[in-house]
Amino acid sequence: SKATVSVLNWTYPTHTLLKLQFLYLIGPIQHTHTHTHTHGTMGARAVLAAACCALASAENHAVIVAGFSGYNMAYSIQSSMNDVWHRLVGRGVPQSNIVALMFDDAKDSGFNPFPGQLFTFPGNDSRDVRHGTVIDYTGASVTPERILAVLTGNATAAGGKVLQSGPDDDVFVYFMSHGDEKVFHVDKEPLHAADLHAAFEEMHAKKMYKQLVFHIESCFSGTVIAGLPDNLGITAVSSVNDTWSAMWNCPHWGGGTVHGVNMHNCLTGVFEFSFFNLVGHSGDATKSLTLGDEYKTLAAETYKVSPWQQQPQFAGDLTMRGELLNRFLGSADNGTAPALGKRGGLAASGAAAFSDSGLVSLYSRYMDAPAGAARSRAAQELIAEVQRRESAAALLAEVASAVPERARGVGGPPRLACHKTAYAAVLAGCPALRDVRVKFGRVVSDACAAYQGDAAKAAAAIMEKC
């Protein structure tokens, strides 16, 4: 169909607007009559002026969320989202149109060998991605409620900068954190899929975008986008499916360092590493790629690293597969992205599950520590983390026993409403489950299935075992 623009409730083909623009430039139309039809001409010029504004006002907007704190558990979450910010700016997305929410504490950790800096790639030419990033909300101001307020343009609830896109604008949203079934973790608080879907529906009702692309990187992120309506003009890509953990890219396992220093941490996610390799930092790198091409590439590259675990999913409005990727990421090359564009392939030996990030970091630090007091401290920290993991595993096994065996893993409808209510009730009644190592979202899903969507009964059954 031909491209059109709506002006004053009239719909014009874009080629007609070009003709009108020419007429506007040459001035009022003179007729053979003894007078000029001034009112008609001025009305036409007013319509044209509005039309030109409608064509010129289309912009790129973005929301970026790094949803976890700390060095051991969140270094790569924060480094990756800083990198995404710079890539968007480098492609021409105005800084004023980007809202960034990040805990922003990994750079200042005593464990960080480069205070104030963050890196996403190993090597002696790796560049600091934290430098120059404008972050709008940091630390305790990053909450599920504020993220939703930013997305829906609710400045009163957000208390600061929010998404201010309009009906002609394209929006790119990128979330990264730890996760659970149907849950995106904002530190220890859940942002539930039901609330995220509701926010997208509100954005659609408010005409806050023309089309929107949503990326989410977290464990079980496929369950967060599952069931996203296909009539909202939103395409969503998750880093994994509904079963597995997301994976980190951990170059130090293969001997990789940053400027000769072992970071004792994973630098970015496998999904992000694939994304960065694909898009580079300029529109030129992806000028002919579609959203469908992006998904196929990300799925293929992440599958190489963890073929039985990391399987990205595609949801929402699948008719958008043919849209150009640059529409959402920007197509310019401003030369401002500090992270180098593309790197070599991923090494499977350098991958680790998101849920293992703390363990991986502490183990690396222990293995690299010199004999003596430093190694003893590293050993104690590692042992404490192993004990926390064992406690989390035992607690998860206990709460899982609350669900009748016949109802475990049976699937069925998403039951988002039941899951949201029961999950919140269980968290309130059993604070120990706030440890993100205890991924009990699947238990809640099974309980909702066992009790036919009765959230009160599902929560009560689980809390009996807590």
List the helices and strands and how they pair.
Layout: E1 4-7, E2 10-13, H1 14-26, H2 38-56, E3 60-66, H3 75-90, E4 98-102, H4 144-151, H5 155-158, E5 170-176, E6 179-180, E7 183-186, E8 189-192, H6 193-205, E9 211-217, H7 221-225, E10 234-238, E11 247-249, E12 268-269, H8 270-279, H9 291-305, E13 313-316, H10 326-329, E14 351-353, H11 357-368, H12 373-400, H13 416-429, H14 441-450, H15 455-463
Parallel strand pairs: 3-4, 3-5, 5-9, 9-10
Antiparallel strand pairs: 1-2, 6-7, 7-8, 10-13, 11-12, 11-14
Helix pairs in contact: 1-2, 8-9, 11-12, 13-14, 13-15, 14-15
Describe, in plain words, how this protein is organized in 3D.
The structure is a single chain. This protein has 466 residues and is of the alpha/beta class. The protein has 15 helices and 14 strands. The chain has a 6-stranded mixed beta sheet, sandwiched between helices. It has a 3-stranded antiparallel beta sheet with strand order 6-7-8. Helix 14 (441-450) packs across helix 15 (455-463). The longest helix is centred in the last third of the chain and has 28 residues, at 373-400. It is globular, with a radius of gyration of 25 Å. 47% of the residues are buried. Residues 1-42, 44-56, 338-342 and 344-349 have low confidence and may be disordered.
